[in-house]
Amino acid sequence: MSTPPDSSLPVCYRHPGKEAYIRCQRCERSICPDCMIPAAVGFQCPSCVHQGAKQTRSGRTPYGGQRSGNPALTSMVLIGLNALVFLFIRGTGGHSSEWVSRLALTPLGKCLAPDQPGAYYPGVESEAVCKAGNAPGHATEWAHGVAGGEWWQLVTSMFAHVDFMHVAFNLLALWFLGPQLEMILGRTRFLVVYLLSGLTGSAAVYWLSGAGEQTLGASGAIFGLMGALLVVGLKTGGNVSQLLLWIGLNVFITISGSNISWQGHLGGFIGGALLGAVLAYAPKDRRTLWQAIGVSLVLIAVVGTVAARTAVLV
């Protein structure tokens, strides 16, 4: 016949008949050797270990995305795609390639100069005026833009480059910024920020540039990554001094340089900052749903902006 334990001695909360001189590091209740589960510091009881496993969403980023096994992979694919389009354009004539006119973003259209591949008349912003100047042997051709039905230019212009320095700078920035953001957001959310920031940059170009101006490059999406990283960094209280220096340098280049689309840079940065805020500040309860709603609203705003500009041009 067993005797009850001395009531003055600590006993295990799960096994009242056993003496226990160790406390769980989480709940601080006494546990016996059978209930002691090694933790990073000390021991935990089975109940706390089970509860911790339920609360820990393994494989998830701080903002609900699936952790990438290789956070650089998506950026590498995007870099490869941009590089392939660049090599294709250079291999088909560079600035004189007909693919520049097809892939670059032109709001209304442009009047192509006869016998000069890739050249166009920047002051001619009407198909009627372009065709009116035709003469035998010198017929001009009107290349339609987004308003003329070439809507894909809003996307293809994000992957098209002609100059080596342009593509090199953009892809170098993508290599440094992309993996950092994908590590924080996860692959799907990173792609959403990249592509939708590029579209907001294209929408800004569509609205704010001349009807016959031609724009191309991934700069809008790159500025979007900067905007999103800045918002996330400020949200977490991280040191964003180096990022601010990078942004400041790019703003200086944008303002002081020639043939640089400040419209695309501005639109991309605003779009990236908005998307970063949507993903970082979404309520934890039903976070994915709130993020999807926020991203959808940004996309609707972009589509509405493009539709409004098209109505003005046509």
Overall description:
With 314 residues, the chain is mainly alpha-helical. The chain contains eleven helices and seven strands. The strands form three sheets. Strands 6-5-7 form a three-stranded antiparallel beta sheet. A hairpin with a 4-residue loop joins β3 and β4. α6 packs across α7 and α7 crosses α8. The longest helix has 27 residues.
What are the key terms here?
11 helices; mainly alpha; 6% strand; three-stranded antiparallel β-sheet; 314 residues; two-stranded antiparallel ribbon
Question: Could you give the topology of this structure?
Answer:
Blueprint: E1 22-23, E2 30-31, E3 37-38, E4 43-44, H1 46-55, H2 73-91, H3 98-103, E5 109-112, E6 120-121, H4 127-132, E7 141-144, H5 153-156, H6 164-185, H7 187-208, H8 219-236, H9 241-256, H10 262-281, H11 287-313
Antiparallel strand pairs: 1-2, 3-4, 5-6, 5-7
Q: What is the topology, as strand order, of the major beta sheet? A: 6-5-7
- Largest sheet report: 3 strands, antiparallel
Q: Report the portion of residues in β strands.
A: 5-15%
Dominant shape:
elongated
Percent in helix: 40-55%
What is the N-to-C succession of helices and strands? Answer: EEEEHHHEEHEHHHHHHH
Q: Treating each run of at least 4 consecutive H or I residues as one helix, how many helices?
A: 11
Structure in a nutshell:
With 314 residues, this protein is mostly helical.
